Every structure is written in structure tokens, then in C-alpha cells.
Amino acid sequence: AGVCDTPAWNAVYRIISGDPTGRFSIMTDAHSNDGLLTVVKPIDYETNNKFVLTVAAENQVPLAKGIHHPPQSTASVSITVIDVNESPYFTPNPKSLRQEEGMPAGTMLTTFTAQDPDRYMHQIIRYSKLYDPGNWLKIDSVSGQITTTAILDRESNYMKNNMYNATFLASDNGIPPMSGTGTLQIFLLDINDNAPQVDPVEVEICERPEPNAINITATDADINPNAGPFIFELPSNPSTIRRNWTITRLSGYHAQLSLKIGSLDSGLYKIPIIIADSGNLPMSNTSELLVKVCLCDQSGSCSGVQPIVGAGLGTGAIIAILLCIIILLILVLMFVVWMKRRDKERQAKQLLIDPEDDVRDNILKYDEEGGGEEDQDYDLSQLQQPDTMEPDTIKPVGIRRLDERPIHAEPQYPVRSAAPHPGDIGDFINEGLKAADNDPTAPPYDSLLVFDYEGSGSTAGSLSSLNSSSSGGEQDYDYLNDWGPRFKKLADMYGGGDD
Predict the structure, then answer these.
(1) Distance CA 42, CA 135 (A)
(2) Do residues 29 and 36 touch, judged by C-beta distance below 8 A?
(3) Read out DSSP for 121-165?
(4) pLDDT tens for residues 46-89?
(5) 73: which strand partners?
(6) Is there a contact between 323 and 315 (Cβ–Cβ < 8 Å)?
(7) Which residues face 171 on adjacent strands?
(8) Strands 95-100 and 179-189: what pairing?
(9) Rounded to 5 degrees, what are φ and ψ at 110?
(10) This prediction's pTM
């Protein structure tokens, strides 16, 4: 083993002064044998911004006898704390209040402020609301004063065990800005602000009840001493109530409603019951008990009857049904109007084109022979050459449309020259098509174009001039043998000499 691995080489470090609260610790690095100083408890610039520690170092094993050296050596370590921005904090947190419920909006409750631990930075703190489930409170952003914006109700669903919790935020303007939260707990004291109610609100009895009594209970949203014991009684008006019914208090929370007469007709009866609580300034309320009298079976249960709830449609349901019917009628009327308007548009489009001239999507029948060509109105003059037709029957040269009569003079489309040319027909058709595309009188849909010009004849004359003995005896036609098999017949006719 090397020297570095022996206990005699390993150093042990200790802090012997300057850290009375034990905020620092020092240990030995196993590889370099250096001392590592660490922070083990929080240090605060505002409490102590500088520490001077005295550190001692000694061998892991005592020095050998006879060596005249001190067993340890010491050194001073100076630590300077740098100030950083810290979060403001509320005191106390949480803050508790006890208030009576029912305070009006705008009531000042308390002032909830935060402290900034950075005493030397002189920062500004602003307050805001972070959590307020009932939206009952507001806080002044500068002073931290908290006031109510609504009536605090102990019976609200936002309350838990009579306690209302709200959270507020305090933020400073440091770099970077820091913030802290504080919770305000408001314990609401109950006041007598709720009247008692009868429970249940609906009961069923037989026409001849046995026993002829109904047990009821009083409930109150308030708590003692603003709730029970309760007082039960029947009103004097209408007089039939006390004549037919009587109520007996069984306890501070329960009573029994009994029928005085022997029987009742089937139907629904509303029995008003006055219930008063025991609070300071007692509150009373007249609750209606809905009693359903029905025919009972042998077991004493109502038979063949529907539940009381839903016996009829409410006003809201009737209004909703009527609105649905009105909307449906409006939709039907709009559909009818739209159908009529579409029919009118179709008729207007049909008037623009003569059905006989409209060539789009028409059915042409080819299986009817008719009574002969003399009964058909065909214009056979288009199959004749212009040279053989009468001058007054020759139509204007060019392309004629059958689907529209032009409102001005018909444009003159290109005329094919009389001189033969290999591309004469193709050029003539292309020029005619281009002229038809640029025609301002063309309708905005596909139409039929009739090319009724066949040319002015050929300068070659009749093919009868090809007779072998009529002319051309002095012409030498032997070169036809060099033109290939297509001209073999002509070569035999004219190239054979006297034969």
C-alpha cells in the first residue's frame, strides 16, 4: 500500500470556534485529503452576514513518540453571506376571525399584512386575492385591508364546520420578484335567520286510515340555540283544517298529525302547519304538508296510483312545449317558401331556351321509321355542293348556331380558300372553333355548332378524266413503278406502252 492509503496520512478536521449555532460542518475528502466545509442549517443575511471559523486539522492516528511537533494545526476561515431577495411572509399565518353571519357587503373585517425579511432592500409589497370560493371578500392592494363583497352565510355550501377559508398573496418588487401566501380563517357565528320546515313534505294515507295518524318532523338550517325545540300548531283559517285534523307534539322535534273524521275522499289535500323555533327572536313558518288520500290494498298500501311528484306539467314545461311547436311551424313554413322559390327559378330558366333547340340531355329516339322521307322536314340542301344550289337558297358561309338568334349581324367566320392544301380542313375547323369561342352572342352553356360549308369544289375536275385512251399518250408513266405497291395498278395501266 502507498503512503496515501495509511491512517498516518489521513487528516481529520474540526470546527473549534466561530459556529456556536452549528450551522456549518467540515469533513475530509477521501481522495484529496482536503477539508470540505458545508452548510447544514439555514443562514440569514439579516441576522449575521459574516462568519469567522477556526478549523483544526490533525492526523487520524496520534504522532509517534519522540516527534516534537504539535498534534494539530489550526486555520481561520472567513465566510461572507450575500444578500438575496426573499419571499414576504404573513404574520400570523393562518389568521383566525370570529364574526356573526349575515354581515352586509362592504363590512371591514380585518387587515392582513405581510413582512419583508429583506430589511436592507426597501421593497414595496402589494396584496391580491388568490382563493375565495364564494367571492365574498376583497383586499386592498396597498394596505391589506379586507372587506366583504357579499353577505357571509353560515349555511352556505362554501362553509366547512362553520369555517370559511380564503387565501391571499403578498408580492414584492425585487429582482427577481418574490411572493408569499397567507390564509384567513373566518369562523361564522350562527344567527336565527332560517325558519323551520316540515319533513317530509309529502305523505300518503288510506281513505279509512288505520291508524289515522301521520308522524312529521321539523328541520331548521340553523343550529342550537336557534333551532329546536319546536312548536307545532294548525292555522285557524281555513276552518276545515282544524275541523278535520289535529296535531300533537311528541317531542321538541317531532309531532303527529291525526284525522278527526272517520274517512276522506281520494285526492290531494294541502295541510298548512305552523312551526316556530326557539331562537332569540323566534322565527316561525307555515309549511304545507301534501297529503294524498288513496284506496289501499289489504296490506294498507296505496294501490294503482302514481307518485305525487309529476302529477301534472308545470308552467315551465308547458311554455317549453309551446315554444318547440312554434319553432317547428316556422321551419315548415320556411321549407314551403323555399320550395316555391326554387320552382319559380326552374321555370324562369326553362323560358330562356326553346325546348326544340336545347341539345342538352335530350332523349333521341332512333327506332321510329315514320312515313317516309316525304313526311320528314329535312333540309337536304346541306348535302349539296354550293355550286349546284340556287343562289337564293345558299346559306351564309360560316358556322350557324341553332340555339340562339343573334341580336346583331352574324359574325363572318373564316372561309376556306379554293386552293387545295394538305392542312386546309384542319385549319378551317380550328379557326372556326376559335371564332365560336370568342363569339359575344354565345350562350353560357354548351351548344351545337353546324359546319354547313363543304368547299367550292376541286380544280382537278371529274375522275372520268383518268380513262386510259382519252389523253396523255405522249406522257411517260414508267416512274410509277418506282412509287411502290400502292401505285402498281396505275403503273400497269399507263406504264405498259402499247399494251
Answers:
(1) 39
(2) yes
(3) T---EEEEEEE-TT--EEE-TTT-EEEESS---TTSTT-BTTEEE
(4) 888 899 999 998 887 777 676 767 778 889 999 999 888 889 99
(5) 57
(6) no
(7) 126, 179
(8) parallel
(9) -165, 175
(10) 0.49
